[in-house]
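tokens incoming
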């Protein structure tokens, strides 16, 4: 197994707290924002926790997963294109351990739901399903929403399928396999995505590779949500490169995740927002 390169290693908790404080001090709330698009996004969605939604059943599934001490064999998929990272590392972990560490929190999953609802997203793509908690939140955005979600570890995908079965997630299509191989066929099937959530392989190379492929399929209204943009130096470099891409107009840095917009008529700007 190859060692992760230094820039791809998760930052220490102390560095993350320092960066968070820096973000908080430099960041704006809605009152410092002059862009009507971003101001409306903040008031109507990001800070608007009153948007209706019924998440009790999903949260009960989360609780069950967090108490499930069964062990499963997992494949940690690194990007095959990234020679600095291990390709596949097989080991055993408990379902509860994965659930506590890898799933988006209730707060973040609810924000993803609000974004999908606010932008009236029908065609959603999630990279990295894990046990399907966030996919389930996203699937509730509107009755005609379809969520395509890709998971590389068959044992994890098996658990996600049980979760979807219990929740009746009829509008979720789980694709099992490496994103490197499945991204193109999945994008080709439903056509331009309205929303893509990047939450799989948190490396610079994989993030930029997925971003560049997805660029060929976006429409003006597509929104990309990239998780953990400050998690490592590599992820931060990827975020900066995405922000400076010519096709991108507005970006919003919420620290835990970054939002990317392609809308024309908006001045190119990165908004650092306290959330
Ligand atoms: C952080 S978890 C996703 C959590 C999920 N979005 C949620 O909040 O409910 C990341 C998942 O991505 C999967 N993954 C990582 N690299 C992948 C790859 N190259 N192809 C497919 N799946 C991958 C992992 O197996 C893991 O289950």
């Amino acid at each position: 197994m190859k060692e992760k390169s230094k820039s791809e290693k998760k930052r220490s908790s102390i560095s993350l707290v320092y960066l968070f404080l820096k973000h908080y001090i430099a960041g704006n709330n809605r009152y410092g924002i002059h862009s009507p698009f971003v101001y409306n996004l903040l008031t109507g969605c990001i800070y608007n926790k009153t948007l209706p939604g019924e998440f009790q059943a999903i949260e009960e599934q989360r609780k069950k997963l967090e108490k499930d001490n069964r062990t499963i064999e997992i494949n940690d998929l690194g990007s095959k294109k990234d020679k600095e990272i291990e390709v596949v590392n097989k080991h055993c972990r408990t379902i509860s351990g994965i659930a506590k560490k890898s799933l988006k929190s209730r707060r973040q999953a609810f924000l993803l739901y609000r974004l999908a609802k606010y932008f009236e997203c029908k065609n959603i793509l999630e990279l990295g399903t894990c046990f399907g908690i966030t996919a389930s939140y996203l699937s509730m955005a509107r009755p005609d929403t379809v969520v395509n979600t890709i998971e590389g570890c068959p044992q994890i995908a098996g658990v996600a399928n049980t979760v979807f079965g219990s929740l009746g997630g009829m509008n979720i299509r789980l694709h099992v396999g490496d994103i490197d191989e499945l991204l193109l066929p999945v994008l080709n099937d439903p056509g331009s995505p309205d929303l893509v959530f990047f939450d799989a392989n948190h490396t610079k190379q994989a993030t930029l590779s997925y971003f560049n492929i997805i660029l060929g399929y976006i429409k003006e209204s597509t929104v990309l949500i990239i998780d953990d943009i400050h998690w490592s130096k590599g992820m931060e470099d990827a975020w900066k490169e995405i922000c400076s891409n010519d096709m991108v107009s507005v970006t919003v840095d919420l620290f835990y995740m970054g939002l990317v917009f392609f809308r024309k008529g908006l001045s190119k700007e990165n908004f650092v927002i306290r959330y």
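note: The pocket of S-adenosylmethionine is lined by residues 77, 102-104, 126, 128-130, 133-134, 150-153, 156, 178-180, 199-201 (CB under 6 Å).
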